[in-house]
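Let us work through a complete example step by step.
Step 1: write down the sequence.
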Amino acid sequence: MAKLVGGFRVPRQMLKAQEYQGHLSIHDDKMAEDLGFSGAPIEGPTHFSQFVPLLHQTFGNAWFERGCMSAHYQNMVVEGEEVGVFVDVSEQDLLGGHPVIAEISAAKRDGTPVLTGTASLGPDYGHTEITKRLERLRPTEKLVILSDLVVGQKGACDPVPVTMTFDQIMGPLYPFSLKSKLDVITENHPFYQGNDNPWGRPIIPIEMISVLTQYTSENSGFRGRGPAVGLFAGQEIKLMKGPLFVDHPYVITREIIALSESRRTESNWVKTRVFDATTDELVAEAILNSATLKDSYANYADDAAALGKRLL
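Step 2: predict the structure and record it as tokens.
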């Protein structure tokens, strides 16, 4: 087994001013503390950038065209904490001597796990972390916060045109620009800012593909009861015909593919498809497990009783 180790980095918090369903999100220090967390967490896909040098080394330039990162977020990271990343490729994951899937993980300096998952190369991508977790989901009894949502529900405003320029502020969910992200990104890459790459255009970093797919998501109609606070519990970003380019028009559609719950959360699993607006080709997909904290919804117990739900 080949194991690659990335150096420790200190990811930056860029969502302190994020607004979520009309109120500050869990990325605000006070909101996080009110919910019992030590501080405002850094958003999960921020950690994806740390893997890119190792995955580029593992898969070559094809990683930027057909790569897939699939992760389950385990523990939150607050600004100031160091995070290291690891990539493992076993012999059985080699095809013709070339890797097709790898296990990935991230951990804090003290060993606390941050995420676990897979990185793979298409067109087959292998058995990804999110695929495995979707297969293990059990039917939900009754949901409370997400009671008005159904599997198969499509985005209310689909299809949605989206573009990411260097200077564009990406809305209340992402009150920053690609340029400001690149100023503090944990691992920069020359492919992100110039034309000196195999595609002749600057490409969007994989962590910012998450931002692109979440842009205007507040208008999707996938609203639960609230106010309540959500966080990312798991995520997959898959490129079919990448890379995605800066200042290029795309169109996205959204669909709820699963609903689930744990003792502390209710989860909405949404698949977002990204199409090239100039060719209509499907170029990328993203799956997001957005988990809403039951304790953050003041009427949870009363609404559960009214719905006849047995509390976990």
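Step 3: interpret the result. The radius of gyration is 19 Å.
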